[in-house]
Amino acid sequence: MSIHGKTTLPYIVRKIFEIQHKLYQQQSRLCSTGRLQEAFKVEEEQEFPKINEIKQEASSFYYPVQKPFKHDADIGEQFTYSQLRVRLAGPHQLQPKPDADDLQFGKIFTDHMFKATYHKRLGGWQKPEIMPLENLVIHPAAKVLHYAVELFEGMKAFRGVDGKIRLFRPELNMARMNSSAQRSGLPTFEPEDFIQCISRLVSIDQEWVPHTESASLYIRPTLIGIEPTLGVASSDSALLYTILSPVGGYFAGKETGGVSLLADPRYTRSWPGGVGDRKMGSNYAPTIHVQKEAAKQGFQQVLWLYGEDHQLTEVGTMNVFILMINEHGERELITPPLNGLILPGVVRHSILNLTREWNQFKVTERKITMTEIKKAVYENRVLEMFGAGTACVVSPIERIYYMGDNLLIPTLENSNSLYKQCLNTLLDIQYGRVEHSWAVEID
């Protein structure tokens, strides 16, 4: 190949290396496919159910998803996808791929990562890069280590029944991440450019996306303050990075059963005026002790309550839904409102979109207390309860222990349950059994 009569040797060398890299990835995978072979087989004549296109304007997202994103005036230059540099891992750095049947959540990571640094004194965001996975090197005075100046997101890439890889509503994750950044005094970014960078990263490590519908590739974008100064203030330097992890089910050993919950009003996860609606690590560290207490008592998760009236907020790290017969004899799907106490989940938003489009029952975002739940359980009016989130998608709830009462929830007793309907519909979209605008294909 030549340009203006000159051979472009660097271009040829780069293309040869990229081809070799793909061959090494394929060879590495051949040693670890194991029980995945059956997952490759898709019946061509199989008829998949059709889903009507959801009217996305039926329920606007909590955070602004407008284009272009409105940054603070002093952020400076933005990084763009066109600036992205790629440095591929060498053959000696490539790892064997795990068997999807043996995957645990967040234990294994892929060969590459994404990085972009921000320095206010240098004018803003610097050029982004994809590189081999490596440890971070930061100053011991970095603000993230002292004042928890950090935030993250949780996304997934799915290998569809047609072999294509898809993201699920990534623009909502970007909107939430930018809003968390603004609340943390960290720099915001251009959502579309970051989505393109993440897509490129997934494309490079595409052999890590499991060839099965029982697993997926978890995507963890993270933003931390790295300015090496003490003192509670905005960080003038930051690091945005993304790592990838092939994952199986979130609740190990509970593939078909329901989740049991400890509801202890002595503990609260968030409060009005706080950051319970942002995805920050500082929201999660204080919950670990309570989660351990729940596990000691034989429960899998914590049902987080708030206030003197013991309002339901979240289930572990999930949003919560209750399907019940209300006081007026109507079937009603209830989820706590976005009042600053709970995280505006992407799956939560999608379930609200779906159920309002189906129009099978009343769908309400409102406050609900344990007194109401307890009364409805005793009157056999609670039909189902389930959690919803990126990690678990939809998870049925079967038991709540609350102030000495063991409340049994008949979620698993319904043959045509709502949680299954929601779960199957979302999985159909994510794994490409139906075409939908929520699923974004990666080239």
**Strand pairing plus helix content: what structural class?**
alpha+beta
Sheet having the most strands: 10 strands, mixed
- Backbone shape: globular
CATH superfamily of the largest domain: Aminotransferase class 4, branched-chain amino acid transferase, N-terminal domain
Distance between the termini: 25 Å
Helix content: 10-25%
Number of helices: 8
Q: If you consult CATH, what is the topology of the largest domain?
A: D-amino Acid Aminotransferase, Chain A, domain 1
Average residue-wise pLDDT: 88
Unreliable parts: 1-7, 27-58
Radius of gyration: 23 Å
Question: Which architecture name of the largest domain does CATH use?
Answer: 2-Layer Sandwich
As for the number of domains, it is 2
The count of DSSP E runs of length 2 or more, i.e. the number of strands, is: 21
Strand residue percentage:
25-35%
User: How do the SSEs run, as a string of H and E?
Assistant: EEHEEEEHEEEHHEEEHEEEEHEHEEEHE
The CATH class name of the largest domain reads Alpha Beta
What keywords describe this structure?
D-amino Acid Aminotransferase, Chain A, domain 1; 8 helices; single chain; globular; 443 residues; 2 domains; 6-stranded mixed β-barrel; D-amino Acid Aminotransferase, Chain A, domain 2; 10-stranded mixed beta sheet; disordered N terminus; alpha+beta
List the helices and strands and how they pair.
Blueprint: E1 2-3, E2 6-7, H1 9-30, E3 85-86, E4 112-119, E5 124-125, E6 129-132, H2 143-147, E7 150-152, E8 155-159, E9 165-168, H3 170-184, H4 191-204, E10 216-225, E11 237-247, E12 259-263, H5 288-296, E13 301-306, E14 311-315, E15 318-325, E16 331-335, H6 346-358, E17 362-365, H7 370-378, E18 382-389, E19 393-402, E20 405-408, H8 418-430, E21 439-442
Parallel strand pairs: 3-6, 12-13, 12-19, 16-17
Antiparallel strand pairs: 1-2, 4-5, 4-6, 4-11, 7-10, 8-9, 8-10, 9-21, 10-11, 13-14, 14-15, 15-16, 15-18, 18-19, 19-20
